Amino acid sequence: MKKGKKITILGAGNVGATIAYTLALDGMASELVLIDINEKKAQGEAMDILQGTPFCAPVKVCSGSYEDATDSDIVIVTVGLARKPGQSRIDLAQANVNIIKQVMPQITKVAPDAVYVVVSNPVDIITYAILKTTDLPESQVIGSGTMLDSARLRSRLADHVGLNSKNVHAYVFGEHGDSSLIPWSLATIAGIEMNRYCTDMCEKHNLCGKEELKEIEEDVRNAGAKVIALKGATFYAVALSVRRICECIVRDTNSVMTISSLVHDQYGINDVCLSLPYVVGARGIVRAVVPPLTEEEVSLLHKSANTLKDTISQLEL
């Protein structure tokens, strides 16, 4: 008889291993399985985490093959190549789509009922490819999307107004990439519409103006690239964002988060995966949330969708 939750991580590189470590610390899973084409790397990462488990909640940590993912409740997909110098966006996308097409039939065969959390980049393209090349229901495939982008935005805004980030609610929509947008009309601070807060409550009394908002937007969009330039990769914040998605699934929280999924006529957009608000619970995506946007924000969202569609049109799925 199965006890507790089983989570499998595909890919034991920096991102996959850090996610496994973060989940082990959290204690939400009773079993963690790491699978990687480099079997020794997966084995070493699993052993390293397992040896520290006496200091945290009990959890079985092991490496294995696809068969060891049987009965997984969640499968986290981190496989793929990092972008190389001189490599085009299309070349990277095609290379990682090819890897996904090889991997997914093997894992879905043994874990057809799992919720799949997609982290591999470009995440919107990979999420779309998984939905188009497998029989998985849309509700069971969650792209991590702009979860981290939205967290970066909340952190930056919180610093700007001198409040805890838990008192700031704001989102990044669209592509997890250069064409993303911030719907400022939805941003609230301490439960107050951002424009009203800035005018009536902020110590700066609206003196920062729109230029500083543009700086915040650029900081959020370039945050990942800055970390990569400084240390070569990003994985801690990514792991924490994935932990949050897993928490919503394991604990059935029905929380709203900006994840990437196949869009069905939200804001007049179809047949592309990008990030919008969705309710996430035990079986994955429960339903979409479609908040009102300004005409300018809808236009920017269409631009982001078209950017992704242009990439998809050049790929062999």
What does this structure look like?
- It is a single chain.
- Helix 1 packs parallel to helix 2 and helix 5 crosses helix 7.
- The chain is α/β, with parallel strands linked by helices and 317 residues long.
Q: Count the beta strands.
A: 12
How much β-strand is present in the residues?
15-25%
With helices defined by DSSP (H or I, 4 residues minimum), what is the helix count?
9
Report Rg: 20 Å
Tell the overall outline: globular
From the N-terminal CA to the C-terminal CA, the straight-line distance is 39 Å
Low-confidence stretches: none
Order of helices and strands: EHEHEEHEHEHEEEHHHEEEH
- Give the integer mean of the pLDDT values: 92
Oligomer description: single chain
Can you list the strand order of the major beta sheet? 3-2-1-4-5-6
Helical coverage, percent range = 40-55%
**Major sheet: size, sense and barrel closure?**
6 strands, parallel
- Secondary-structure class: alpha/beta
